[in-house]
Amino acid sequence: MFFEKEKMQWHVIDIKTGNEMWVTEPLNVYTKSDWSVYDWTVLAADGKIFFSGQSGCVVAFDLKTGRHLWTFRQESSGVMTPYGTWPHFGRLNYADGKVYFAVTEHTPTSPIFRGYRMYCLNAETGEPLWEIPGFYNGESVAIADG
Would you say 61 and 88 are in contact if contact means Cβ atoms under 8 Å apart? Predict the structure, then answer.
């Protein structure tokens, strides 16, 4: 798969044939944010594909068909961030039918935003299961024992 930044679209390629399987609509259709131009974080797991990034949303698709499954949107950040939401810059993690992601920034300001947190989402529905405040480096999240 690859991200076409100029169109905010993900392209999914069949690794066996090299043929394009499907292409998303521009991600801002799902996220309602033009910050989706930086939604280049991707995770494929359990027959689904998840995208996230500076829009602060997580968008899920069926990996084989490209059918949009759900979009998780965080609340507005107001004027706390320049994005209007809480950005995600780092890795998405998956375990036990759950997607984990943290509000992160590639260049945190000082002082840091007050809305940093980690989320756990139901991978089937996008429903938030829990969230916990804190600043988490999006590249160093680990999951153990499920």
Answer: no
Q: Return the structure tokens found at 110.
A: 């000082």
Tell me the whole-structure pTM to 2 decimals: 0.91
And the tokens for 119? 């989320």
Chunked mean pLDDT (size 10), the chain, 146 residues: 95 96 97 94 95 95 97 90 84 93 81 86 97 78 73
Number of Cβ atoms within 10 Å of the Cβ of 30: 23
Q: What's the CA gap between 34 and 83, in Å, rounded?
A: 9
pLDDT at residue 5, as a whole number: 94
* Euclidean distance between CA atoms 105 and 19, whole angstroms: 35
The pLDDT assigned to 138 comes to: 60
Tokens 């984990």 belong to which residue?
A: 100
CA 66 – CA 13 distance, rounded (Å): 11
Residues 6+ apart with CB under 8 A from 127: 121
Tokens of residue 143, six digits: 């999951």
Give the side-chain half-sphere CA count within 13 A for 12: 20
- The one-letter code for the residue type at 97 is G
Neighbouring residues of 3: CB distance < 8 A, sequence distance ≥ 6: 9, 10, 11, 39, 40, 42
